[in-house]
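Lab notebook page, bench 4
Experiment: in silico fold of construct C2
Operator: M.H.
Input chain length: 383 residues
Purpose: comparison with the prior construct
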Amino acid sequence: MRILIVKMSPIEAITSSMFRTLAIARGLHEQGHQIDFLTVPDTNTNAKAEPKHFIQDINIIRTKPNNLFINASKTINQNKSSLKKIVISAARTLWHKLCIYDNTINIAKSISLDLLPTNKYDIVISSSDPKTAHIVVKRLLKQGLECGKWIQYWGDPLTLDITQKSIYPKIILKACERGLIGKADKIVYVSPFTLDEQKKLFPKYAKRMCFLPIAYMEKKEYPQTCNSQFVVGYYGDYKSNVRNIVPFYQACRELGDLIHADIIGDTDLTLESDANINVLPRGIKDSYEEKADLVVCILNSRGTQIPGKIYHEAGTNKAILVIVDGEKRDQMYEYLESFSRFIVCDNDVEAIKNAILKVIKCKSKVHPLEELHYVNISMKLIS
C-alpha cells in the first residue's frame, strides 16, 4: 500500500513523539509499504538525533519554511545575550497564551496538495504532537486528497492536555478537538486511560477510538555492565508542573555510596549534583544509558498520559523502574505490571529506595519486550 505519514516537527528532532512516529514508519516500510513522510524543515535546533538508516528508503517531503520562526530561532542563537532574545522569548510566551496550536499552524494553514507526489493514498496517518498534523490532513482532504482510511495517531489530547498553555476555556478546546477527530476513520491514543477519558468526552466518536501502546524504534542489547557502583539513570525532561522528580532525587541522596545516579534532562528546578549524583542538561543519552544498571521513568503528576520513554526503554535489555504518580496511579500500577517487564513503585522516597535495593539484590537478566516491537505495533495501527 501507499501510505502518507504527516508529522509537523523536524525529523531530526529528539522527541518521544518523533521516535514514536518513526517507529511506525520503519515498521510499515519493512512490511513492504511505500511511505511518503511529510514533515517540516530542520529548524537548526541543538537537540538532534542522527538520521536512522531506514529513513534513506522513505520519501521525505518537507513543507516550505515558516520563515518567521526559523529566523527568530537563528536570531536567538546568534544574539544569546541581546535584548532581542528577551523580546522574542516574551513573544513566544504570548503566542502560546493566545493560540491553541504551536507556530506550525502557519504552515498547516498554507499547506498545498501540490507538495505531494500523488493525491491518492491507501492510508493517511497524521501523528501529533504537534496537533497541527491533523489540521494539515484536514486541509489536504478539502483540496482533493483521496485516501482509503485516515488514521489520527494522538500523543496528548487537546482538551485534556496538561501542558496546554492557551487562555481559551475547555469548551473552545473541545470544539476544536471535535472538529478534528470527527473527520477521522480511526483515532488512536497511546494511553488506555486517555482513551477512557476521550470516550467520555466525545461519546459520538467512541467506536472509532482505540488504544495502542507505543512501539520502540529499535532493539538495544547493551553489553553487561562492569560498574564499581550500581548506576541508576534518569534520562528525560522533568519540568515541575509535569512530573515530580524530587522524591527520586532524595532517594538517591539517601542511598549514598550504594549507587551512582545520572539525571539528564531539561527542567525549571535547580537540582545540584551531589557526591553520588550527576545532574546534566538535556543531551544525547545513549553513552550514559549503556553504562546504566537501572533506567528510571517517572509518570506525570496528573493526567492520563504515560510517557513514551517507558516504551522506548522496553526495547533495551536494561532493568526499568517506573515511578507512578497522579490520580490514576493505582490503575497505571496495575497496567504496567501486566507487561512483566517493569519494576513499579509509588513516587515516595522510601518506596523508591526499596525498589532500587530490590533490583540491586535481584540482578536478573531482562530482554527487549517483543510485543512492543515496531513491526508488531505498526501493523496493528493500520489494521
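Observations: DSSP finds 13 helices and 13 strands in the chain. The longest strand covers residues 146-154.
Next step: discuss at group meeting.
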